[in-house]
Amino acid sequence: MSDERRRNIASLDLVRVVAMGYIVGFWHLMNYVDGYGGYRNEVTERLTVIVLATFTMLSGYLLGRRPVEPSLAGVSAFYRRRLLRVYPPLVVALIVFALLSITSWTISIRSVVLVSLFAGPSAWTLWYVCMIVLFYAVAPILLADRPIQLLGKPIAPWFAGGALLWLGLIGLQQSGWLAMEPRLALYFPCFVAGIGLARLEHRVGTLAAVAAGLLAAVASLPSYGLTLPEIELSLRSAPMALFAAAFVLLVALRLQHRIPHHPAVAVLSCAAFFAYLAHRPVYVLATRLFPISSPSGQLAFMLLVALPVVVVVSWMLQRLYDDVLQRLGW
């Protein structure tokens, strides 16, 4: 692997680690600590939206670097390569969530077939991975390398397909026919934009990053006036999510030649996906096995014991799963 590619991966790994660290090591960890209710506020709610948007855009970007041949063989290879990496672990995580009563069996079963995204409620926390699986399912439409002819002009499939699918999601949400997960429409533009950024990366410079940052600041204005729960659900947060995530990713790409590969970042990045799947079960078991009454003691225990356990377990699970896939030739 060339030094350039290692640095490029390192810059994206750092984004992944910071994003997942915020969710696993702060946003969800504080659910298990008493006495610090103020951690949910106008700033952290918006930051959570931006972090999830960044992770979603990064997922789209990584997919967009490799076009999918619009053929049965090409699409089949894509599903085999991508869905096998995320879907089986998601199914296992949903079973574990149900066994620990983090979510009900009904919701877990409906989430396995992604029905919960369109006929809620969605699985607590794992709704996000279900959403990513759904985005992967429609990704071949966006990843085709042949332009679509519209009114005699070529249009990139990621743009045309993404716009049509997004309008469809909004239409379903506004119709009220289904109890659809509202965050599908909120984060789908970020996924599409990630694919687009991968295709246009060679044309994007520092000015684009500055513009995205300025637009993110302006785009946050529509989210003001929303209640705290609404910030995470409303389409009024979509412009902020899109431009803020674009700013983060563009800055990371601009710094790709300056960020060296670091083993610790690589390990944490490797553990990130399973950390998202496993952190709540670990936190639930930790608090049940070692109940602590003091809020400060709870916080110290979660940060110094439970969180490191999440990292170690997640890294081991990811390496084990990678080994299984390799042995099976997948």
Please tell me about this protein's structure:
With 330 residues, this protein is mainly alpha-helical. Strand 1 (148-150) and strand 2 form a beta hairpin. Strands 1-2 form a two-stranded antiparallel ribbon. Helices cover 71% and strands 2% of the residues. The protein has helices at 3-27, 42-64, 72-99, 105-112, 127-143, 157-175, 183-200, 206-219, 228-231, 238-254, 263-289, 295-327; strands at residues 148-150, 153-155.
**Which oligomerization state do the chains in this entry correspond to?**
single chain
Q: How much helicity do the residues have?
A: over 70%
Structural class: mainly alpha
Mean pLDDT: 90
Strand order of the largest sheet: 1-2
- Mind describing the biggest β-sheet? 2 strands, antiparallel
Distance between the termini: 21 Å
**Rounded Rg:** 20 Å
Give me some keywords for this one:
two-stranded antiparallel sheet; globular; mainly alpha; 330 residues; 12 helices; disordered N terminus
Write the layout of secondary structure elements.
Layout: H1 3-27, H2 42-64, H3 72-99, H4 105-112, H5 127-143, E1 148-150, E2 153-155, H6 157-175, H7 183-200, H8 206-219, H9 228-231, H10 238-254, H11 263-289, H12 295-327
Antiparallel strand pairs: 1-2
Helix pairs in contact: 1-2, 1-10, 1-11, 2-7, 2-10, 3-4, 3-5, 3-11, 5-7, 6-7, 7-10, 8-10, 11-12
